[in-house]
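Re-run with default settings, no changes from the original entry. Doing this only to confirm the output is reproducible before filing.
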Amino acid sequence: MADAIRVFNDAASVLIMRDLSATGWVWEFGNTYPPPIPQSGTIAELRDASTGRVKWTLSGTPSNFSQSATPAVSPNGRYGLISMPEEKGAAIALISMDAGNVIQKLRQPGWGPIALSFSRDSKLVVIAAGTVMATFAIGE
């Protein structure tokens, strides 16, 4: 899968998901297989759109297979939503767009394609996964 990209509303910055995942073999029909091989690297980064300069990076080491969802940036530009490769399953992270730090991790509410979004007033997080949709209020 290719990197997923989201452009800030003002088009000055670009939030990029690097699709970091463990590697290895996937077997079906109950066969035993070696465990996935953890990979370390960049999960997400914010770049200046005009210069390409990296403003911040968020790194990690997924120990399971994962895929990156297309990230979301709140209308007010303060928050981002990204998929996080986790040892115990998929998680969604609410991040600060200023520093790139994780504010809170949320469990993916279902299985299937993931869509991440914010309300127009930037006060709600919206996560859809398969046929399940969850909303979370952002406390100030």
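Residues 9 and 30 are 46 Å apart (CA to CA). The mean pLDDT is 83.
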